[in-house]
Specification:
The structure is a single chain. The chain is α/β, with parallel strands linked by helices. The chain has one domain: Vaccinia Virus protein VP39 (Rossmann fold, 3-Layer(aba) Sandwich). It contains 9 helices and 9 strands. A 7-stranded mixed sheet has the order 3-2-1-4-5-9-8, with helices on both faces. A two-stranded antiparallel ribbon has the order 6-7. Helix 2 packs across helix 3. The chain starts with 10 loop residues before the first helix and ends with a helix. It binds S-adenosylmethionine (SAM). S-adenosylmethionine binds next to helix 3 and strand 2.
Length: 260
């Protein structure tokens, strides 16, 4: 189970996330990053029609990623949003987007059973959630995401990618893992697990995925001390098996040749 700190994502967070105008970090960094990640994943959807594709949004928060999915043409009846916080889920249900919402912990091994009606998914989005998980929770979460995806399904993940600037305790791009408590923009104290680019890539690859697109996202004008890292990764069991059969190691995969 995730720590109790996750329950601090409640009404205050939801109101901040859905404020009008929206938070600058969403407008300038997260919205464009997730839009490009969803567009990239849509190029490789195992389902030929977007309306038929099933999508899971992990850690819905203010349900803004669900808004993006709806704008991209996914059908509300095929979108499922999960969050560990019951407050978040009850608020998201009231938005009237038509998506399915339920309380669930992505790190819980029983989640595949819980979502057996909705799964498997062609696409799983997970924006700004992995940074709230410990290393072992991240491994459980990625294993569940892998199992919930169809073969050739994609994961679109967004995480903070801090750079040393005003904050001396934040890590530089090349530094390692840092755990810190921070006052979040909505006023709560939240625990952040900061990892660098290589740490996220290694864990995602170790979980069986083939990362095929990444983007370092920063605003034109600084709005925060942290930037974002977007990763699009694919579950491709057939491709991985064919590599093993040909005695090729995954390190020989040329991500760019593969994704185009
Ligand atoms: C920073 S918010 C991000 C919300 C949204 N994805 C976005 O990008 O705007 C993180 C959300 O993940 C949820 N969360 C944290 N740990 C989780 C877990 N183990 N399983 C499911 N949701 C989780 C939190 O309750 C919170 O709503």
């Amino acid at each position: 189970m995730s720590g109790p700190e996750h329950y601090s994502f409640g009404e205050k967070y939801f109101k901040w996330s859905r404020s009008n105008p929206p938070p600058e970090i969403w407008l300038k960094v997260e919205n464009p990053a997730m839009t490009s990640g969803i567009n990239e994943a849509m190029l490789y959807l195992p389902q030929t029609s977007v309306e038929d594709a099933r999508v899971l949004d992990v850690g819905v928060g203010g349900a803004k990623v669900v808004d993006l999915l709806l704008q991209s043409g996914f059908s509300p009846k095929n979108i499922t949003g999960i969050d560990i916080s019951p407050t978040i889920i009850s608020l998201a249900k009231k938005l009237g987007q038509g998506a399915n919402y339920c309380v669930a912990d992505i790190t819980n091994p029983k989640i595949t059973k819980k979502l057996s009606q909705e799964a498997p998914f062609d696409l799983i989005t997970c924006s700004m959630v992995f940074n709230h998980l410990t290393d072992s929770q991240l491994i459980f979460a990625l294993s569940n995401i892998f199992n919930l995806l169809v073969d050739r399904g994609s994961l679109v993940a967004l995480v903070p990618y801090p750079k040393k600037s005003k904050r001396s305790d934040l890590i530089d791009a090349n530094d390692g893992y840092v755990l810190c408590n921070d006052i979040a923009p909505w006023g709560d104290i939240v625990q952040y697990h900061h990892r660098n680019f290589a740490q996220y890539f290694e864990t995602i690859e170790m979980s069986g995925f083939i990362p095929h697109f990444q983007s370092f996202c920063r605003p034109n004008s600084p709005v925060e001390t942290t930037n974002r890292l977007l990763i699009v990764a694919r579950k491709d069991v057939q491709f991985k098996n064919s590599l093993i059969n040909h005695n090729l190691g995954p390190e020989l995969i040329n991500r760019h040749n593969y994704s185009r």
